[in-house]
Amino acid sequence: MQQQDVEGGPGPSAGDPLSGDPRLAAYFGAALPAVARFHALLAAEGVLRGLIGPREVGRLWERHVLNSAALVPYLPTSGRLIDVGTGAGLPGVVLAAMLPEVEVVLLEPMERRVDWLTEVVERLALPNAVVRRGRAEDAHGVLTARAVTARAVAPMDRLARWTLPLLEVGGVLVTLKGRQAAEEIESARHVLRKLGAGPAEIHQAGTIDGVEPTTVVRVERVALRGR
Predict the structure, then answer these.
(1) 174-192: burial string, b at 16+ Cβ within 10 Å, e else
(2) Domains of the chain
(3) Cis omega (within 30 of 0) on the bond before 165?
(4) pLDDT tens, position by position, for the chain (227 residues)?
(5) Torsion over CA of 26, 125, 91 and 49, rounded to 10 degrees?
(6) What is the four-CA torsion angle of 203, 208, 211, 213, rounded to 10 degrees?
(7) In a designed cystine with 154, which of 35, 57, 72, 158 is the match (CB 3.0 to 4.6 A)?
(8) How far from the centroid of its chain's Cα atoms is residue 168's Cα?
(9) Three-state SS string across the chain, please?
(10) 153 CB contacts (<8 Å, ≥6 apart)?
């Protein structure tokens, strides 16, 4: 794999040990050029623009990009997806690159992050990505989707209140969680049931060999209202 600049594709970047790894091409397939450009943009500008901490630059592939990509097997391959609190574009930009038939709404309340996301979508030429400024609650009754994603946004009880009203019946909330996923789900059980959610599933989602699996929680909205 050849090294290219920020606007190009994969290549060694910012000391990230996975940059240039041929396994990335096998894993991302046709999405790799856009995903690699996104990685390069984050590595070049992320710290300066307050999107990531300095220590994250050397581990963007493992901790952020592949972590985001781990959601893909649990998501629909068409329709609308809303990534709430998308921040730097994680996981939303990665998902837009990997799911070209899905309309990905990058929902973010902070203006400077919205500016960044707008630039990223233009520079990566992602026609299926839409940047929208606002909070999840602002979109209630305005947007509906087949899927909602979130990464490091809020504990499960609050996240459910913010996101489940955005889902159509049969839609799914798919979120990245840590070791406390089961405890969060138990604490949110009443809220989930009240908002029409079915049983929450916890998955250990792998990506490439040698990268620690990611904890993914998937919840389907089975009814508009619960009991």
Answers:
(1) bbbbeeebeebbeebeebb
(2) 74-220 (3.40.50.150)
(3) no
(4) 223 334 444 444 447 888 888 999 999 999 999 999 999 999 999 999 999 999 888 899 999 999 999 999 999 999 999 999 999 999 999 999 999 999 999 999 999 999 999 999 999 999 999 999 999 999 999 999 999 999 978 889 999 999 999 999 999 999 999 888 999 999 999 999 999 999 999 999 999 999 999 999 999 999 987 65
(5) 120
(6) 0
(7) 158
(8) 19
(9) CCCCCCCCCCCCCCCCCCCCCHHHHHHHHHHHHHHHHHHHHHHHHCCCCCCCCHHHHHHHHHHHHHHHHCCHHHCCCCEEEEEECCCCCCCHHHHHHHCCCEEEEEEECCHHHHHHHHHHHHHHCCCCEEEEECCHHHHCCCCCEEEEEEECCCCHHHHHHHHHHHEEEEEEEEEEECCCHHHHHHHCHHHHHHCCECCCEEEEECCCCCCCCEEEEEEEECCCCCC
(10) 84, 85, 159, 162, 175
Length of the chain: 227
Residue 124 is encoded by which pair of tokens? 């990566």
Tokens of 115: 């500016």
Structure tokens at 66: 């592949």
